[in-house]
Amino acid sequence: MTWFELLSYGGVYRIRRNTVPRPDVPAVSYAGGWRRPEADDWWHRLIAGHAG
Where along the chain do its domains lie? Predict the structure, then answer.
């Protein structure tokens, strides 16, 4: 199972991916370092399945 969170760190946004630990796959990884408008764009792409 994998789930995502949009997080804010002092006005800088990151997406955190959490997954059940598996061999060769980190349980937590991050993407981002965006301001809010760009973070919203990436978040909407992710939930729509168009982030790749």
Answer: 2-48
Tell me how far apart the alpha carbons of residues 7 and 18 are, in angstroms, rounded to a whole number. 13
pTM: 0.83
Instruction: Map residue 51 onto helix, strand or coil.
Output: coil
pLDDT of the chain along its 52 residues, tens only?
899 999 999 999 999 999 998 898 899 999 999 999 999 999 999 999 998 7
Alpha-carbon distances, residue 43 vs 12, 22, 23, 24, 46 (angstroms): 14, 25, 27, 25, 5
